[in-house]
Amino acid sequence: MQFLNKSVVFILTIVLIFILVPRPALSEMSDHGLEKEVKALKEKVEKLGVLERLGERVGLSALVEVEASAGNGFNGVDESDIVLATVELGLDAEIAEYVKAHLQFLWEEDDTEPIDMDEGTVTVGNTERFPVYFTAGKMYVPFGAFETNMIQDPLTLEIGETNQSAIQVGFEVSGLCGSIYAFNGNIDEKEDPDDKDNEIKCFGANIGYAFEGD
């Protein structure tokens, strides 16, 4: 009987709670919990939207080259080696409709230690809307054409390739492209910054035409 009395009291307590607590209050509690869930879901969607927009504006690229060689030297000694020749990491960002940034880090075994800022430029312009653009920063100036299918860089590229901090003004229209550029080369640079020879005296220009063949 005592157990039944306790059960009856418990049931009556639950009934009284439902009677005394207004239904709108219970509804408000339920709505508040639902509102919190919806808000949390919206925050997750907004975060995904930010990442999606970031992915549309930022591009990443990478290059890894491993070289293996074997041969017989002039002294008659056999030689063989495996080298992690090149590791490149690139980042391209569209800061605004007419402003883009480009970064490229380079590591070459026994050459760049620990890692080198190979390229870093800012470009003002959008050739899809306006043909003229301006680029400033560290770049490979467009001196010569060194396209090749060889595994290693040809001697012409090793001699003629120029990587300098420079400014460049160029254009692209209907397949025709060209630019002029200027930089302070290494030949006349001296330790004294007041020396008149430490000036921008290197200039260049290039022009080309690109077309698609059958």
Task: Offer a quick outline of the entry.
The protein is of the alpha+beta class and 214 residues long.
Could you walk me through the main structural features you see in this protein, from its secondary elements to its overall organization?
This protein has 214 residues and is of the alpha+beta class. Among the domains are: 2-52; 125-209, no CATH class. It is 28% helix and 41% strand. The chain has an eight-stranded antiparallel beta sheet with strand order 1-2-3-4-5-6-7-8. It is extended.
- What is the rounded Rg? 33 Å
How many strands? 8
Largest sheet: 8 strands, antiparallel
Order of helices and strands: HHEEEEEHEEE
The count of helical stretches stands at: 3
Looking at the structure, what is the overall shape? extended
What average pLDDT do the residues reach? Answer: 78
Which stretches are low in confidence, meaning pLDDT under 50 for 5 or more residues running? 1-17
Please indicate the percent range of residues in DSSP E strands (runs of 2 or more).
Answer: 35-45%
Beginning-to-end CA distance, first to last residue: 98 Å
* Percentage of residues in helical conformation: 25-40%
Record the strand order, biggest sheet. 1-2-3-4-5-6-7-8
